[in-house]
Write a structure and sequence with these properties.
The protein is of the alpha+beta class and 296 residues long. The chain is 27% helix and 20% strand. The chain contains 5 helices and 17 strands. It has a 3-stranded antiparallel beta sheet with strand order 1-5-6, with helices on one face. Strand 16 and strand 17 form a beta hairpin. Helix 2 crosses helix 3 and helix 4 packs antiparallel against helix 5. The chain is elongated and about 85 Å long. It starts with 37 loop residues before the first helix and ends in a 6-residue tail after the last strand. It binds 2-amino-4-trifluoromethylsulfanyl-butyric acid and cobalt (II) ion (CO) (2 copies). One cobalt (II) ion binds next to loops. One cobalt (II) ion (CO) binds next to loops.
């Protein structure tokens, strides 16, 4: 029987035609090391940390807390409250459950939530601003719960919404829905952005490009970035185990953003209304599952 063992004088398996000792012997990982697993490759190429089934269970628990807290806010929200009153509801509920807000002290951010009213696109800092009848109020929260994170937000009506408020809330909600529906292995991150941008623009609205969705679960903002605009088939291929947010910010007017002096609050440059919905999405074998599910 022929001895196939690789010796110093064998032909190098890299195909160079040289002897192994003169070629790859001293650079063993170069040409024929064990191929990387998909998990290793996604980390090496994209810094994406895939989640296993235990991770998913833990993120789901954080997701339940997010939804429970958003529901609590919805039940208490009314004209006359301040945006800081909402932050206090979040703080107290997280505290009761033994969770911490990921936003608190995140790159200097001072609160437990982002509360973005009317023309505020995102990252509104809760303060003494009084919420009025007819306002649209986005509340975005992210607990760290048993070491895992889930991120979601919703835009609420206060009292009786006007036609513009109704329109921007409906379009932004539909954008999230359409984005989620194209999540399945084999599709790409560009497919998500494309469906969102295509729908928003057909409705005469614009997609904010300065802020994007993101990987989440172990940390607040992980790879990959998930733009809400893009081209069909472009970008990273989705594979099972990826967990990321989709969180389109849609403006009734133009897409341009101005960040206020507090260095956080992002408003529309043309002062038009802006709305947003966000969920944390897990790519499964056949499609997706939301880890922060709510009806849209
Ligand atoms: N929750 C936001 C997101 O969806 C991020 C808020 S960062 C903060 O990614 F510092 F402004 F809170
Ligand atoms: Co997010
Ligand atoms: Co968020």
């Amino acid at each position: 029987m022929k001895d196939n063992k690789l010796g110093r004088n064998s032909l190098c398996p890299c195909g160079s035609g040289k002897k192994y000792k003169k070629c790859c012997l001293n650079k063993p990982f170069k040409k024929f090391s064990k191929p990387l697993s998909l998990k290793e490759r996604y980390f090496k190429d994209y810094k994406i940390r895939l989640k296993n089934s235990k991770d998913i269970e833990m993120i789901k628990k954080a997701g339940k807390l997010v939804i429970e807290t958003l529901n609590l806010i919805e039940s208490e929200l009314q004209a006359g409250m301040t945006t800081n009153d909402i932050d206090i509801i979040v703080r107290n509920h997280f505290k009761k459950k033994g969770a911490k807000a990921a936003t608190l002290d995140y790159m200097g951010y001072p609160k437990n939530s982002c509360v973005s009213v009317n023309n505020v696109i995102c990252h509104g800092i809760p303060d003494s601003t009084v919420i009025k009848n007819g306002d649209i109020v986005n509340v975005d929260i992210t607990p760290i719960y048993n070491g895992y994170l889930a991120d979601a937000n919703k835009t609420f009506f206060v009292g009786d919404p006007g036609p513009e408020a109704k329109k921007i809330v409906s379009v932004s909600k539909q954008c999230l829905k359409l984005g989620m529906e194209v999540v399945k292995p084999g599709n790409t991150i560009g497919d998500i952005g494309w469906v969102i941008q295509n729908y928003a623009q057909r409705q005469g609205c614009s997609v904010v490009e300065d802020y994007v969705g993101h990987g989440v679960g172990f940390e607040f903002h992980e790879a990959p970035q998930v733009p809400h605009f893009g081209k069909k088939g472009a970008g990273i291929k989705l594979i099972p185990g990826m967990v990321f947010t989709i969180e389109p910010m849609i403006n009734l007017g133009r897409k341009d953003v101005v960040v206020l002096k507090d260095e956080w609050t992002a408003v529309t440059k043309d002062n038009s209304l802006s709305a947003q919905f966000e969920q944390t999405i897990y790519v499964t074998k056949n499609g997706y599952e939301s880890l922060t599910p709510f009806n849209i």
